[in-house]
Each structure stands twice: as C-alpha cells, then as structure tokens.
Amino acid sequence: METPSWLNEEFMERALRYSENDDTIHVTDISTKPATNKGDNYTSEMVRVNVNFHREINKKIIKENRSIIVKLGLTMDGIHKDLIEQAGLFDTEINFMTTTLKDMTSILKDSKLGGNCLFTQNKDPSVLVIEDLAPLGFRMADRQTGLDLEHCILAMKGLAKFHASSVAVCEKTPHYKDMYNKGIFNSNNPPEMTKFFTNGMKSLAKAVAEWPELDESYSKKLMEISEIAYDRASECRKRNDNEFNVINHGDFWVNNMLFKYDENGKVIDHIFVDFQLCVYGSPAVDINYFLNTSPSETVLINHKDKIIDIYLSVLTATMKKLGCKTHPPTLADLKKAMRQTELYGFLSACTVLPLVLVDKNDAQNLEEIMGQDDSEFNNKAYECKTYKTTMVRRLPQWRAMGLLDL
C-alpha cells in the first residue's frame, strides 16, 4: 500500500502531543512501512511508523525515537471499504480501546491485554494510533502451522482473563453490555458480509465435490445450507441474559494475537490485537471460533478437553480474585454453551480457516475474494491440502450432529 499523504510529521506530532500530554514534542522525521503481509489482515490497513522527535524536559532538549502502529480505514475504494464502513468496525474498536479495554486492564492490574491506544480519529479518515508491541518482544505466530499446545494454553489463559475482567467491568458499568452487540455473525450486518460467508460455503461445496474421501452428499448438503448458514450462526450467537455472558473478542484467531518468547524460543506471553468485532454474549463464541481456526489439528484431536479445562480454571480463579458477584459457569454449563454455538465454529471452519491455512503465495485480500460475482467466486484457499485433510476429518462429525441438514 502507498502511505497516504496526511500520514506525515505533522500528524504524528499531533498524535504524540495528545497521547503524552506534552506540547513541547516536535517530530523531526518519520519513516513508514506496511505492518502486516497480504493475507494477515482483512478489515484495515496497518502501517508501522518510525518516529524521531525531541521534547523539552527540565529545560533540556531530549531526543527520542519510537515505533508506532497506525491503523487506518481502507484507502482504496470498493466493496471491501464500503463493508467496513457500513459495519461500523472502526467505531467499535475505538470505543473498546478508549474505554472498556482500559477499564479491563486497570482492574486486572497484572496483565496487559492489548497495546495502548495513543490517539483516535473517527472519520475522514478513521484512524487508530496504537503502541507498537514489537519492541516489547511480541510477534505473530505462523498461521499455517497451527498453534501448538503451549501457544494454545497461553492463548486460552489470556482469553479467560479477558473474559473475567469483562464480567467485572460490566458489573460496574452495565451499559458496556449493550455497546458490543454486533459481532461477525449478525443478521443486521451489511449484505456484503453475509455474501462472504455464503459464497465461502459454496466454494467449500464445490471443493468437497472433488474430494474422493467424502461422498457426493456432502457437497450437496453444503450447497443447500449455504444460503441459510450465516443467519443460523447469527441466531445461535444471540445473547441470553439468563446464561453466563462476557465481552467476547469476537475475532479470536491466530492473527489477532501476538506472542512473546524467551531467549531459548519458549513462548512465555500472549496479548490481543484487533478489537473491531467485540460482542457481548456466551464465552463459547470466542472458544468455538478459536478452536476451529487456530490450533494445529494434532492439538485439537488430543488436547481439546485440556484446553477447555485450563480456560475454565483461569476464568474461575480470576473472577474470584476480582470479586465478581456473577457466578462463573460450571464445566457442564460451558460444554452445553459450546454445543449450542457449535454452528458458529462450524461456519468459521468452512469460511475463515481456509484463509488461515492458505499458502502465503496464494493469499488474497478481501477485495480479491469478494469482488468477483457469485458465479465466479473462487477463493484459492479451498485448494490447500492441509485444509482438505482437516475438513475431511471434521465434516463427518458435524454431519452426525445435524449441522449439515436444512
């Protein structure tokens, strides 16, 4: 992407002066480069800005250098840009990072959930200026290999603390529950979002027709439910105030988390990024989405129960530590909620997982995937051998649960 002309020394000086509350800051030079690769981020553009500046401290001029992430609304016109704007994704993230996330982090005290938000601009264009987590040692894991058990455990411990702190802040600030009411599966989302999932299901149906391991009825059933799967997932996600609810991250997959490693390469910490799809409801929403998009297949086959047990243990302990009045779910409650939202995980595996596993050379942006008309929609991700192996194993399980039936 080409760096927009407004992203200059003057803009960064304004952002830094605001975030530091220091009008002596003077930016002398900036350099920019893309912060993500193609296929790593679908709903925004990320720029890493290296900023040289100086300020006055005790009548001395102090020179400083800082790396900062600037997240911006899409610069190219098209379906993709319109979709992001209509869905209000930036508004959700700005609201979350400037209010709720701060409250959650403050109440936890010992855990950093995300990067600090330094500056925001709601329109013309929509912009978030965020702390760069790379200098703190955080980096993205390899989405293609799938997370191993150690990464999954850290991710689920982090998710448990995220959820527990959201319960605590919602008890103190109940209106947060109503602020996050959209999410990725919601019948009120723009039609183009439904189109992505509907056409993804059709692409899978066409791919399955070429897989000799599954009989032709699988392709037929997937094609039949393609038009209604999104609405069904939206329905199963709806919040029930009689059950245990949290603020879900809402898009909790491998690319929306960063990990930190020690000098021996051992993973030691986890942090969240991208809060555009936060949604209040059952924690099973995040759990099912994560399990169906992010762990390696080996981990999912052998350690699924362990991962869920660790999540619940940390959730319960953290809620107790924070003095929550709300009772945490039992294991039976949580597994019941996961069964009720299984369709959420199923649709994620049918449409999001191929984007996770696709070879970096075949990665497409959302405009390339969605910009084609319905008859030609052809996401290269469905040709991935790893994806095929995964779905050949999972589809019979979902069929047995009735998820492929009209």
UniProtKB/TrEMBL annotation:
It comes from the Eukaryota. Residues 128-321 form the CHK kinase-like domain. SUPFAM superfamilies: Protein kinase-like (PK-like). This is CHK kinase-like domain-containing protein.
